[in-house]
Amino acid sequence: KQEVTQIPAALSVPEGENLVLNCSFTDSAIYNLQWFRQDPGKGLTSLLLIQSSQREQTSGRLNASLDKSSGRSTLYIAASQPGDSATYLCAGNSGYSTLTFGKGTMLLVSP
Amino acid sequence: GAVVSQHPSWVICKSGTSVKIECRSLDFQATTMFWYRQFPKQSLMLMATSNEGSKATYEQGVEKDKFLINHASLTLSTLTVTSAHPEDSSFYICSARDLGASGRWDTQYFGPGTRLTVL
Predict the structure, then answer these.
(1) Chain A CB within 8 Å of residue B56 CB
(2) CA of B92: which chain A residue's CA is closest?
(3) Which pLDDT score is estimated for B101?
(4) Is A32 strand, coil or helix?
(5) Who among A49, A89, A101 is closest to B107 (CB)?
(6) Which of A37, A51, A82, B24 makes a 20 to 30 Å CA pair with A10?
């Protein structure tokens, strides 16, 4: 069964910094790796989806990478802004199974 | 893009009552929907997988008689929390898998969640 771990659990940075969020998973036969954003008391917003045949995906200031051999994914946020403050969740699935979520990284970007 | 809605967005009820939460896929058909529960500062935990026209598959430790799931159509799944108690208070999120022609057959789209508070 897929297990997903995210570190750090919380991160506080000043505005403008580039930062990296880490995600590790146990089953290298991962099919999809997905990064979500969750604002307090809200649902999930899908940020980036990396399929098993891909190594990275980019959207604006966000870049996500996937290394199946090492069981890791990273989410890179460039030039962070206070509006980026949220909890970032990493989730993966193997084959046709549902997504398994990590516990998330709570990000605070201060002005 | 694909949109999933949930209703209600929040509900407060007395202990012992039942609460129904609806999950709808608005612009696509979803033969499979998922129900998750999220406690404060915790991640999403899968409760059950709902398949249209058949019985739901529950994860270990989830009481199927307490959390009734019905997936009567390709666009609607409901979760009923029966005889709710304060420990059932949580954030419930559904997702739907789009098996349409987009090519991203395995993408799950998430609803906005329902906050349940049981007094």
Answers:
(1) no
(2) A43
(3) 42
(4) strand
(5) A49
(6) A51
